[in-house]
Amino acid sequence: MAGALRAPIMAAMSGRGITTSLPKRGLRLARTALHLLHGLWTVAAHFPFYSLPRRRAAVRGWSARLLRILGVQLHAVGDAPDGDGGPVMLVANHVSWLDIFVINAVLPVRFVAKSEIRSWPAIGWLSAKTGTLFIERARRGDAARISREIADAMTRGDVVAVFPEGTTTDGSQVLRFHGALLQPALIAGASVHPVALRFERGDGSLCAEAAYDGDKSLLQSVLAIVAQPDLHARLWFLPALPPDAAHRRELAAAARQLIADRLRP
Fold first, then answer.
1. In terms of residue numbers, what domain contains 233?
2. Mean pLDDT, the chain, whole residue set
């Protein structure tokens, strides 16, 4: 009898199956909407007059506040690079649309994203105005264009982040990395910094509800996230890989291995 009672009690303590109250979810959604409007206003009215350092500071602060509003506790480990020491590329596993804000809350970067994101309400416009580089995956030959743009951006001092899996997962695995997105690192002579991302509950277990995968819509994903009572985002900046690989596939495989090793239970 005691054993039968212990299981649900332990589940409740770990947060599994437990969600926030409806009023708290509503408050998080309302505050998120207001924060999004504030971001739109800031980018439209102030970004044209901001210096680059001030833009980056604004992106970092806005992203960190968004995570707090959504109830996401951020934990970053390791030294985040910058573009002052030469061209830099971040290479990360991909779990959720939250990944962008988790990284930006620590180090504002320019992301490479699928062109479909440009059509997302508000978020698409914000992404475009804050420097996201969009790739048309359905267009043959677009890889060459985006490769040049990424290399040029890194050469100018921007840190560029890519998700070489090409899709999201529930966070329990790291898929094969496609080497094409790492080609610009070889072109620009950029150091490649693997970044491992994981969303957890308070007890350290994987929180698959934070993932934006499968057939889940953006709205469903947002609702799942605001329902989490104790969501943690863990971000590891791993040792850099020099841009001296013989081929982009070797560089992609090495980056993936470092990330997979870090995330392995």
1. 2-263
2. 89
Residue 244: its pLDDT value, please?
76
Could you tell me which residue, 7 or 177, shows the higher pLDDT?
Answer: 177
Tell me, what CATH number does 79's domain have?
Answer: 3.40.1130
DSSP string for residues in the chain = -HHHHHHHHHHHHHTTT----HHHHHHHHHHHHHHHHHHHHHHHHTGGGS-HHHHHHHHHHHHHHHHHHHTEEEEEESPPP-GGGS-EEEEE----THHHHHHHTTS--EEEEEGGGGGSTTHHHHHHHTTPEEE-TTSTTHHHHHHHHHHHHHHTT-EEEE-TTSS---SS--PPPPGGGGHHHHHHT-EEEEEEEEEE-TTS-B-GGG---TT--HHHHHHHHHT-SSEEEEEEEPPPB-S--SSHHHHHHHHHHHHHHHH--
More confident residue, 157 or 121: 157
